[in-house]
Amino acid sequence: MLREVLGEEVIRRRVAAMAEEIDALYKGEGVVAVCVLKGAFFFFSDLVRAMKTEAAIDFVRLASYGDGQNSSGKVRITKDVEINVEGRHVLIVEDIVDTGRSMNVLMQHLAALGAKSVRLAVLVDKKERREFPVHSDFVGFDLPAGFIVGYGLDCAERYRDLPAIYELLA
Prior knowledge:
The chain is α/β, with parallel strands linked by helices and 170 residues long. The chain has helices at residues 8-26, 41-50, 101-112, and strands at 2-6, 31-37, 55-65, 71-79, 89-97, 117-125, 138-142, 148-149, 165-168.
């Protein structure tokens, strides 16, 4: 069973506001916008189109979730960036950050590739679940515990296509 947490219009307005925050920070400097597949795809598309900042587009894919709801505890980069990020600002766009394990690995990886800066735009931040020191620079929504789906977020590859965000109830 699903319970709506964030409706389509609320999400649309917040994404537009985040784009303005990003534009204000970069003030005409370009960025390499990196979408974390698969979950961030819808958010990434809406955010980048709302930004005025010039953005080169790239994608990464991380693997850490085994059965859909529980992390395996290990993070692998299964698809790396193809654009050279050395000396460039990088904006990671992620759907959700909870423990911070995956983003910690990715941010360190991009920094090691020589990025000028690495910042994080996240749709949903669950700070109370944080286990790794990850700072989200641009946050769509802070949400409490609960397993959420929709707008790219999934449970075992289901529910990504829902236009709003829902809590998955038992």
